Recover the amino acids of this structure.
C-alpha cells in the first residue's frame, strides 16, 4: 500500500545534541509537510516543500532545518534541541495543488533529556 | 487568515449514545473544512472534508458533518458511538488556493464509556 513512513517512531536525544527525523513516502506526491504537535495541542506547520522549493513558516525557529534530497524522502533536523522541542513530529504529503487532501505518517515522538 | 475554535476540550459519552463535536471557524474568504481523528501515538487520519456542494458531508466510520455558512460552523456527529471511537478529534480549515495551509483547531478528546 502507498503510504507515508516515519522513522524512528520514538527518538530520545540529549539537550543540545543534534537530531534528525526522517520521512519517506511511496505516494509520489510533490508536496511534503512537517508539523510539530506538542502535548494536547493542535499540529502546527513548521515548513513544507513544493518539489524542491522550501517554504518556511514565519514563526518556525532557526533551530529547525529541513532537507529533501529527492521526491521520496524528507528530513527534519533540529540543530540544538531544547526541552521545549519535545513533541510529536508529523510528516504529511499531498499532490501539488491539492493541499486539502494530506496524508499523514504515524509521527515521531521526540523526547529531550 | 483563518482560525478554528473547538468549544469542548473533552467530551465523555456512553457507548451507543449519539455525539456531537462542535467546531466554529473564522475566515474572510471561502474555505475548505475538515475533521481529522488521531488515535493515541498515531498520525492524523482524515474523517471527512467539505470542499463545496452539499452541506451535509458523510465520512468514514459512520461520522458526518454539516457545513453552516451563516453560523460559520462545521459540527461533527455520529448517531451511535463505539469504544473504538475514543480518540482526539481535530477540526481544520484552509483557504482554497494552493498556497493556503491547513489550520487545525485545538482538538476535542472523545472518551466513550462502556
Amino acid at each position: 500500500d502507498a503510504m507515508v513512513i516515519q522513522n524512528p517512531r520514538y527518538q530520545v536525544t540529549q539537550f543540545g545534541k543534534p537530531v534528525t527525523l526522517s520521512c519517506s513516502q511511496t505516494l509520489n506526491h510533490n508536496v511534503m509537510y512537517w508539523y510539530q504537535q506538542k502535548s494536547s495541542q493542535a499540529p502546527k506547520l513548521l515548513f513544507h516543500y513544493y518539489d524542491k522549493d522550501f517554504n518556511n513558516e514565519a514563526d518556525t525557529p532557526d533551530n529547525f532545518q529541513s532537507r529533501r534530497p529527492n521526491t521520496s524522502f524528507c528530513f527534519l533536523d533540529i540543530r540544538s534541541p531544547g526541552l521545549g522541542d519535545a513533541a510529536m513530529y508529523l510528516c504529511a504529503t499531498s499532490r501539488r495543488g491539492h493541499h486539502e487532501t494530506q496524508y499523514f505518517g504515524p509521527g515521531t515522538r521526540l523526547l529531550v533529556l | 487568515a483563518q482560525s478554528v475554535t473547538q468549544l469542548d476540550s473533552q467530551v465523555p459519552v456512553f457507548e451507543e449514545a449519539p455525539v456531537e463535536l462542535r467546531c466554529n471557524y473564522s475566515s474572510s474568504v471561502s474555505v475548505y473544512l475538515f475533521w481529522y481523528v488521531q488515535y493515541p501515538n498515531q498520525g492524523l487520519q482524515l474523517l471527512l472534508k467539505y470542499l463545496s456542494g452539499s452541506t451535509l458531508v458523510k465520512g468514514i466510520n459512520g461520522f458526518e458533518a454539516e457545513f453552516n455558512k451563516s453560523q460559520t460552523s462545521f459540527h461533527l456527529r455520529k448517531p451511535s458511538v463505539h469504544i473504538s471511537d475514543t480518540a482526539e478529534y481535530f477540526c481544520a480549515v484552509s483557504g482554497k488556493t494552493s498556497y493556503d495551509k491547513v489550520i487545525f483547531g485545538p482538538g476535542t478528546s472523545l472518551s466513550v464509556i462502556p
Notes: The interface with chain A takes residues 32, 34, 41-46, 49, 51, 90, 94, 98, 100-102, 104-107 of chain B (CB under 8 Å). Chain B has one domain: 3-113. Chain B has a mean pLDDT of 93.
